[in-house]
């Protein structure tokens, strides 16, 4: 049986579209929503409620729909749950299914929850499932989650694309109903850059539901067409449809989610599914209209009960009738317009039940003139019917019907204005909070409480009916049982009353306790009724109770839209060192260091990581290894005061460092803790090549800039990041000099001319280089700096050398860590954690005490910095050489003490050392240096590992190997 | 996202900037002459007001300069900005 009118509506009756709902095939028309197409087939039952699994139909016609949430499956992982059927535009082949029911909508086992509703009151999960605690995880939560809830999140990766766009404009108008269109045309006429967005597929808003209105002598449809054409023709106006302004952010940044392809059966693959607009507007004009308020009466949620305005929208937009015989229950005039329009379309209006004792005006007279029975001072207090309403209780009369249309008045949509912390005032006459203008923002039309079309459009209007009336809260004389306030969360008037009886006073607490106004509803249909009921319970007025705070988003936004292109490889873009491709081609396994990908180790054949690292370490100790150190931070410090600047930033003294020499620099935070370290080379009197840790480069430069700009602005120094300008190849091992010598020109490499901790400029392979003689392995070592783009060529030239007997062994960061640990070199961020002083690391010798000041110096004298039992760096050797400690493991004096044990330190580094044939570790231990030779314990699951405290240096204590 | 007025570049979106804590906490000219309490005060004590707050920002993805501004911590409105080393 069809509920489609023979003519009318804004659909294209020549285009028939096939779709399925819960596996059953239907047809609709282009211009239908899923909801209108189902209603046209007489299908009202579209969902089951959240908690009680009550059968639910469509309540509204738009974004505020709380009941008809559906899952749309486009195939291939294109799954979208919780879409409002009233917003899903029909396309050929649409596949939709209902949610929260098992096995079917008509027969839902979960509905037993409805029978138990007296045991499932507000906050039931706080009360019923309290004990024992372990049952929450294993029983209550899984059971509740299975029974309650909305749709299921898709599990497959989303194949669609989402894009972000930024835009600026002078005026952004949110909402393209009569008020928004009027504001947009006025702004456009001044030549300003104007944007107007609307969440509907076409402009017009509520005007589309007023075909009978005559605006300035023209039919409303003609006025709308002219306005739309006018805006589209202007070069200074951008019009966005299917675009929901979901959030206001500071300084008028508006987030708009545009649905680009969801309404298209076969979208252009080059189009994104959705687009996030971030629009910065000098002025925002909010024209978001109003949402109709349901009447709160028992069983007000049966399929076939909908808002009067929604029925009108389905009729005028889609040519769909809600039923054959309707009861209209209202507290305002606009429902009369729905009754009259449906009456004219052939629906029997069994009665209009008006809560008002003596309503007067054109709407009432027109209804009476049309022969519609109008009952005044009449409350609807119940309904009957199972999967579809079959009767309405008006006073003591049961009136048979298949549809109940209700209206308690209209609630201005304040979401964006409230998100912007705009002030509100309460208008008692309409029981509405109304927005107040603030700089850069104003509200117009229904969202500002102005419902009169003539006033909104500024021209004479006839044939339109304004609301003129309002009711809030439970209808008089009705029971609060099963009188739903928030349909989506199954919150009844009784739940709200219970919450106040249990002592909840703040509306914010009542909201959280009862969950009213949560989820996709966000208070659109439920807010004012809930406030009125709470106010009534507390003996307060609605403004005394206050409005809950609105927060973004106004309606759900997909994660895809928020993420945009920032996913997969682009989620956190990786940095690749110049020799990355060579390493990848040669089988390197990479590790993440900050945002860098670094070669971790280079396994050969079937080598394990352990095997590979051991081989790489042996090669460095016995021959020569080659390592990509390009990720080290590099800062060029230049200027007449460069040495003085470094003197103030580092603990060391720099004034006497000769040109061509290097020094290991230690940098502290002002609080005296180790902040960064690195080798610094003096290129010229006024020029230093500073290196930082890989992860510290950006914060060290920021730290330097901070002091230079704000504390020492008198110093003439310039800082430039050169991290990505230099490729750095570390060549380490006894054969290092022999390896590079044939390729280097212009530098005397002899130990006398080029001692350890020196820097020279020359060429390698004909490429200009800053050649450092430094060692982070304890072996003879060089670090070759060449312009980054030459890095791979120089690397390959080095790999092609066979000096003296074979090519160098590439090694990765793991071998680098082991080699430096064997020498007891610390890594900032591994041995340190922001609470470690130079003395804690045994690096007091790095502090130039003669300097009057440097960053962090004064802090080193603070009382807690000099106490005897500070944690100090020590080496640890396990009693059994093959035992490998776990980094981060805690250290105790006595493993037999009761739990909780007193922990006196932790392991900072731990490796198997191929060089030493045993494990080694470093640790921070309370008073560690006074414990040399003593035994401590590392309790681990199943065993306590016995360790001996030793000096934190395990290899070549005299440094003899530095000279090869 | 705030619009922050860089005194050197003009109004720019917040994501070009980096917050740098309370302003006008001068590093003592002679740290060695301070008492432990005075030094601890300099290091750690901040006013954390409700309302007008003088704070430092750096236009890190712009001119790179540190500057000061007055922001209301309740309304998030920025009253004005001014170069480092100057007073409002």
Could you explain how this protein is built, in words?
The complex is a heterodimer of chains A (964) and B (88). Chain A is an alpha+beta fold and 964 residues long. Among the domains of chain A are: 12-113, 2Fe-2S iron-sulphur cluster binding domain, sarcosine oxidase, alpha subunit, N-terminal domain (Ubiquitin-like (UB roll), Roll); 162-290 and 413-462, FAD/NAD(P)-binding domain; 322-407, FAD/NAD(P)-binding domain (3-Layer(bba) Sandwich), CATH 3.50.50.60; 626-724 and 825-854, Aminomethyltransferase beta-barrel domains (Alpha-Beta Plaits), CATH 3.30.70.1400; 866-964, Elongation Factor Tu (Ef-tu), domain 3 (Beta Barrel). Chain A has 23 helices and 52 strands. In chain A, strand 49 (905-913) and strand 50 form a beta hairpin. Chain B has a single domain, classed as 2-Layer Sandwich (Folate-binding fold), CATH 3.30.2270.10. Helix content of chain B is 10%, strand content 38%. Chain B has one helix spanning 36-44; strands spanning 3-6, 10-13, 18-22, 52-58, 66-72, 78-83. Chain B is globular. Chain B starts with a strand and ends in a 5-residue tail after the last strand. The A-B interface holds A 249-251, 253, 278, 280, 421, 670-671, 702, 705-706, 709-711, 713, 852-853, 857-859, 861-863 and B 1-3, 13-14, 18, 20, 27, 30-32, 34, 36, 39-40, 43, 56, 58, 60, 64-66, 75-76, 84-85.
């Amino acid at each position: 049986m069809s509920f489609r009118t023979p003519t009318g509506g804004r659909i294209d009756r020549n285009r028939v579209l096939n779709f399925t709902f819960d596996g059953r095939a239907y047809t609709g028309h282009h211009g239908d929503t899923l909801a209108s197409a189902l209603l046209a087939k007489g299908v009202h039952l579209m969902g089951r409620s959240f908690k009680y699994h009550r059968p639910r139909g469509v309540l509204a016609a738009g974004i505020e729909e709380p009941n008809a949430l559906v899952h749309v499956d486009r195939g291939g992982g294109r799954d979208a749950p919780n879409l409002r059927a009233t917003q899903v535009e029909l396309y050929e082949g649409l596949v939709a299914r209902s949610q929260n029911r098992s096995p079917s909508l008509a027969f839902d086992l979960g509905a037993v929850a409805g029978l138990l509703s007296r045991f499932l009151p507000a906050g039931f999960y706080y009360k019923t499932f309290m004990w024992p605690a372990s049952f929450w995880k294993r029983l209550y939560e899984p059971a509740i989650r299975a029974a309650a809830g909305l749709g299921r999140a898709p599990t497959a990766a989303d194949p669609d694309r989402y894009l972000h766009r930024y835009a600026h404009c002078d005026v952004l108008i949110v909402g393209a109903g009569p008020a928004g269109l009027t504001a947009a045309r006025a702004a456009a006429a001044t030549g300003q850059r104007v944007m107007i967005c609307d969440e509907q597929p076409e402009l017009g808003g509520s005007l589309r539901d007023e075909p009978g209105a005559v605006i300035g002598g023209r039919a409303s449809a003609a006025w709308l067409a002219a306005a739309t054409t006018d805006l589209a023709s202007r070069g200074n106006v951008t019009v966005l449809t299917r675009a929901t302004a979901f959030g206001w952010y500071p300084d008028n940044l508006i987030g708009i989610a545009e649905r680009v392809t969801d309404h298209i059966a076969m979208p252009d693959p080059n189009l994104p599914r959705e687009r996030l607009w971030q629009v910065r507007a000098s002025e925002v004009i909010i024209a978001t209209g109003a949402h109709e308020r349901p009447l709160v009466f028992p069983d007000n949620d049966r399929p076939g009960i909908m808002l009067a305005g929604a029925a009108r929208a389905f009729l005028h937009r889609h040519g769909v009738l809600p039923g054959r015989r309707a009861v209209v229950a209202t507290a305002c005039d606009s429902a009369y317009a729905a009754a009259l329009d449906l009456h004219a379309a052939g629906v029997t209006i069994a009665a209009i039940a008006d809560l008002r004792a003596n309503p007067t005006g054109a709407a009432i007279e027109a209804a009476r003139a049309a022969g519609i029975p109008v009952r005044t001072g009449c409350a609807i207090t119940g309904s009957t019917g199972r999967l579809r309403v079959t009767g309405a209780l008006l006073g003591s009369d049961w009136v048979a019907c298949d549809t109940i249309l209700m209206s308690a008045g209209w609630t201005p949509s304040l979401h964006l204005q409230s998100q912007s912390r705009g002030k509100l005032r309460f208008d008692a006459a309409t029981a509405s909070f109304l927005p107040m203008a603030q700089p850069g923002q104003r509200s117009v039309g229904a969202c500002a409480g102005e419902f009169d079309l003539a006033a909104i459009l500024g021209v004479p209007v006839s044939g339109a009916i304004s609301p003129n009336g309002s009711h809030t809260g439970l209808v008089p004389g009705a029971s609060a049982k099963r009188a739903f306030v928030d349909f989506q969360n199954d919150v009844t008037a009784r739940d709200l009353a219970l919450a106040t009886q249990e002592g909840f006073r703040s509306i914010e607490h009542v909201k959280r306790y009862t969950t009213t106004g949560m989820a996709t509803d966000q208070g659109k249909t439920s807010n004012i009724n809930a406030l009125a009921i709470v106010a009534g319970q507390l003996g307060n007025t609605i403004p005394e109770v206050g409005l809950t705070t609105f927060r973004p988003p106004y309606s759900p936004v997909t994660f895809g839209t928020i993420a945009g292109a920032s996913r997969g490889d682009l989620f956190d873009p990786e940095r690749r060192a110049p020799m990355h491709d060579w390493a990848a081609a040669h089988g390197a396994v990479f590790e993440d260091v900050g945002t860098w990908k670094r070669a971790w180790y280079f396994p050969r054949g079937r080598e394990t990581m352990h095997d590979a690292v051991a081989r790489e370490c042996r090669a460095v100790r016995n021959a020569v290894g080659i390592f990509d150190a390009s990720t080290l931070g590099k800062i060029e410090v230049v200027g007449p005061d460069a040495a003085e600047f470094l003197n103030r930033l580092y603990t060391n003294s720099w004034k006497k460092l000769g040109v061509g020499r290097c020094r290991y620099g230690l940098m502290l935070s002002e609080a005296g803790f180790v902040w960064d370290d690195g080798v610094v080379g003096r290129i010229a009197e006024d020029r230093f090549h500073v290196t930082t840790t890989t992860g510290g480069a950006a914060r060290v430069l920021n730290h330097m800039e901070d002091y230079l700009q704000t504390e020492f602005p008198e110093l003439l120094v310039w800082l430039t990041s050169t991290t990505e300008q230099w490729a750095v190849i570390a060549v380490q091992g006894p054969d290092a000099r022999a390896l590079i010598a044939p390729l280097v020109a212009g530098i005397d490499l002899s130990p006398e001319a080029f001692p350890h901790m020196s820097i020279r400029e020359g060429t390698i392979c004909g490429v200009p280089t800053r050649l450092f003689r430094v060692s982070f392995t304890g072996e003879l070592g060089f670090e070759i700096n060449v312009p980054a783009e030459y890095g791979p060529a120089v690397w390959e030239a080095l790999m092609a050398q066979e000096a003296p007997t074979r090519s160098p062994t590439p090694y990765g960061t793991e071998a680098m860590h082991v080699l430096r640990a064997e020498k007891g070199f610390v890594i900032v961020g591994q041995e340190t954690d922001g609470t470690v002083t130079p003395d804690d690391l045994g690096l007091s010798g790095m502090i130039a005490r003669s300097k009057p000041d440097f960053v962090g110096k004064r802090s080193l004298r603070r009382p807690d910095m000099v106490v005897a039992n500070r944690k100090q760096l020590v080496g640890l050797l396990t009693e059994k050489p093959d035992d490998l400690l776990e980094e981060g493991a805690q250290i105790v004096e006595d493993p037999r003490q009761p739990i909780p044990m007193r922990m006196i330190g932790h392991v900072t580094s731990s490796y198997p050392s191929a060089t030493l044939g045993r494990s080694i570790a470093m640790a921070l231990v309370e008073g560690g240096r006074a414990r040399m030779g003593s035994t401590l314990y590392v309790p681990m699951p199943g065993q306590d590992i016995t360790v001996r405290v030793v000096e934190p240096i395990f290899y070549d204590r005299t440094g003899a190997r530095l000279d090869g | 996202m705030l619009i922050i007025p860089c005194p050197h570049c003009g109004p720019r979106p917040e994501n070009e900037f980096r917050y740098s804590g309370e302003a006008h906490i001068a590093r003592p000219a002679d740290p060695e002459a301070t008492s432990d309490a005075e030094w601890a005060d300099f290091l750690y004590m901040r006013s954390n007001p409700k309302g007008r707050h003088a704070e430092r920002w750096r236009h890190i993805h712009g001119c790179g300069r540190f500057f000061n501004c007055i922001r209301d911590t309740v309304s998030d409105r920025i009253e004005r900005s001014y170069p480092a080393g100057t007073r409002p």
